[in-house]
Amino acid sequence: MAKTRHSSNRWALTGLFKRITLGEDPKLLQNEASQLAKNVSSDDIASAQQVLIDEGYSSDLVEKIENMERPALRL
Description:
The chain has one domain. It is built from 4 helices and no strands. It has helices spanning 2-21, 26-37, 42-54, 59-66. Helix 3 (42-54) runs antiparallel to helix 4. The radius of gyration is 11 Å and the shape is globular.
């Protein structure tokens, strides 16, 4: 069960970062990011980074994620 939550957090985090890069209004994403930050682990962040790399997202984006602290997920 923990693995399922880990996977869903990874995909939610990946989707959130994709939506940010697409230019969605950060104010609209703020609540979602705040809720996600409560549950996301360093493993989730690492997994989301790998997904983005695998999908061809820029190293700049991945570096920004790497430098984030969990509370900084608040937009």
